[in-house]
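Objective 1b: paired records.
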Amino acid sequence: MEIKKIVMGSDHAGFGLKQKVKAHLESRGIEVIDVGTDTPESCNYTIYADALCKVIQSGEASLGILVCGTGIGMSMAANKHAGIRAAACENTFSARMTRMHNDANVLCFGERVIGYGLACDMVDLFIDTPFEGGRHQARVDDINALDKR
C-alpha cells in the first residue's frame, strides 16, 4: 500500500522537528495534513493528539505522526482513541517492527530525544513497512477488541 497522505501534529516541544519532517514527507510526494500546533508557544499536547486521531478515525488519512518532547505523552493521549495504535519509538528497529507486527497507525517520537536524520529514517520505515499479518493479526484483533470494552 503506497501512502499518499499522512496526518501530523505536535505540541510546542515538537514543533521544530514536526516542521522538518513535514518538509521531508512533502519531498517524497506525500500530502501532509497538519493539525498543529503552528507555533513554538507553550500548548497542551492532548489537543493535537485528539485532532490527529479524529482525522485517522474519519478515514481521511490512514497513518499519523505525533511529535512532542519525548513522544510518550502524545502516545498515551493517542491510545485513548478507539482504533488508534500509537507507538512511541526512539530507533529505526522499533519504528519498523511496530508497523510489521502491531499494525501501528501512529508513530510518536520526541524532539528532545532524537534528531532530524533519525526521525526521517524512522518515518520512512514506518510508512514503507507493511503489516505482516499472519500470526500477528490475532494480537491486533485483541488490541482492537479492547476498544469495545
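Objective 1b, second protein:
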Amino acid sequence: MKNINLIALDMDGTLLDASLNIKPYTRDVLMKMQDKGIGIVLASGRDIILLKEFGARLSIDQYPMSGYICLNGLEIYDYQENLLYKEKKLNKDDAYKVFGVAEKFNLDIVFFFKNSLYVVEVAHTHRYTLQFVGITKYCVETIEKIPTDEFNDLRKIALIQTPQIIEETLEQLNDSDYDYCRVDDDWIEVNPINIHKGSALKRYAEVKSISLENIIAFGNGENDIEMLEVAGKGVAMANSFDSVKEIADDICLDNESDGIAFYLEKYL
C-alpha cells in the first residue's frame, strides 16, 4: 500500500498492552503518521467518555483527520469529540431478550449504561472482578433489580463465562436479531444486527472523503472482522483469534511486541 490516509485501530489486544497502555514505540510511530497527515481512528466497544482518554495519549484532538468509532460502531466522533453519526442503540426490550439468552446458557451478563454498569450474576463466575476499574459497578441477581430509568441510555451488553462455555454457546446460538461477537476468550459483546465497526468505518471514510482502499485496519477480536474486511488492508495481530487471522490480509506481531508500530514502519 502506497497511499494510506487512515489507520483504524482496535483497542484491547491490539493498540493496548495487557496493562492498558500504549507502548512508547507504538505511540511514537502513530504520532509520526499523524504528523504526515494520516488520520488515526480508535475503534472500540468503549463509549466516547472512556475512549477519549486514550485519544489524549495520541493527541488526537490536534489532527482533524483522526477520530473515534465507539460502542462497536454505534457512534462516530471527530477529532474534537463532536458526534458525527449515531445508530439506534439497544433498548430495554433488547436487554430482556439477551438476558433470556444469558439464563438459557448460564452466562453472567453485563449492562453498560451512561454512568454505571450492572452485572447480573446468572452464573456467578466472578470473571468480571478485574474489569471496569474506575466505573461505578453494581452486582445484582436478576435484571428486575436494575432501575428502569437506566435503560433510557443502554450503551452495550456483554456476556461472560469460561472460554469453553463461551465456545459452546456461540456454536449453539441461533439468534438472528443480534450480532454476538467474541472479543476475548471469556467475553461476548452483543450488538444490533448489521451494526459493527466495519459499517462505521465505511461511514467515517465517506465523511472524510477517503477511499476505503487507502485505509489500513488492525484488530484481534471477532468484533473487528468486518472492519478488517472493509479496509483496503486488514491486519490481524499475532494474538488474534484464528477466525480473525483467516480473513485478514496480513498478520503482524502481537500487541505486547509493538506489532502495529513495526508493521507500519516496515510497510509504509
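The first strand starts at residue 6 and ends at 10. The chain has a mean pLDDT of 93.
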